[in-house]
Amino acid sequence: MLKPIPIKDDLFYIGVNDRTKHLFENLWPLPKGVSYNSYLLSDGKTALFDTVDICYSDIFFHKLEIALSGRPLDYVIINHMEPDHSGSLGLLRNRYPNVKIVGNKRTADMVQGFYGITDGVMVIDDGDELSLGKHNLVFNLTPMVHWPETMMTYDTIDKIIFSGDAFGTFGTLDGGITDTQLHPERYYDEMIRYYSNVVGKFGSPVQKALEKLSALDIKMICSTHGPVWTIDEQIKKVISIYDKLSRYEGDEGVVIAYGSMYGNTEQMAETVAYELAQQGIKEIILHNVSKRSHSYIIRDIFKYKGLIVGSPTYNNKLFPEVEYLLSKIEGRDMKHRYFGYFGSFTWAGAAVKRLAQFALDTKFEVIGEPVEMRQAMRHDTYDACISLGKAMAERLKQDR
């Protein structure tokens, strides 16, 4: 059986890897799997930081028992109540009936709601402290990053932040646990995809949390997903990623997301992309919404300033996959994007009107003139698509 992995002399990794699940939250693809991270700090008192998905509780408990080495489990600190982390909590209480469950008031409400547990719950507030012996823990409430009960726990001795879902990534830990044992670069895009899809709506709470963390000397980040960050350069990198994404700051580049039933609307997308390249824009990403998971499209929209959406008219509405994508963008309350759009129809046009309404609803800065094509590409449509690409490129270059 698998054993706990020592991170420091008294800190053990007892998380698990999930290479089976296809969709995170039953929404987001997991081609590289995902880890559920849990940690045990063994001091005068023992403290467990979060649990794991109940599907992996047998592996988790085996690791925990070895790490405890016959000692009692004194505390389980719940930084985040989402069931991929708290799922084994009920079983944990059955195995360790004297363990104290530590969390804030909202955590306590959820512990009762999910698992029917009301006794042995230690309710803490922002800034409260808990001594384990040598180690002293300080609790930092970070609501809406990305649930209302989320918090982070700081070890003042070893300068470790147990950050819950913050700074987490999709992707399993394939042998190595810390950033010193693997190539951290391969997790960056998955961190952006994780943030944009799971946390993306909550930019303002993330900024408040980062402001709170800025006062701490952080030597290690122990997230509930992905690698343990220990290298100073990597710690700064992952914090900067969260800072940039939560400010909705994009790089120079354009995402063109389009739907097309028979290829005519796709030709419009290709023409716009061609002109963007002619104008010196090098980061151009075309996404066929019927073929590419929205998870990756949303990630790229968070990465780049420019967004151009194209859709045929379908049942006097937008193409369904385009409409679904737009609802996900609106649900993330995105800001600071330059927006262009185009549409097509055969006998009655509606797509362009609906895209215009989306621009109003999101308050994106509309760039260029929208292009509407009837049936197939002609010279005037081609020229209009060129103009749209040129207008977007010129707007992006103003920010250089």
UniProtKB/TrEMBL annotation:
SUPFAM superfamilies: Flavoproteins, Metallo-hydrolase/oxidoreductase. Residues 254-393 form the Flavodoxin-like domain. InterPro entries: Flavodoxin/NO_synth, Flavoprotein-like_sf, Metallo-B-lactamas, ODP_dom, RibonucZ/Hydroxyglut_hydro, Rubredoxin-O_OxRdtase. Gene3D superfamilies: 3.40.50.360, Ribonuclease Z/Hydroxyacylglutathione hydrolase-like (3.60.15.10). Pfam families: Flavodoxin_1 (PF00258), ODP (PF19583). In the N-terminal section; belongs to the zinc metallo-hydrolase group 3 family. This is FprA family A-type flavoprotein. It comes from Dysgonomonas termitidis.
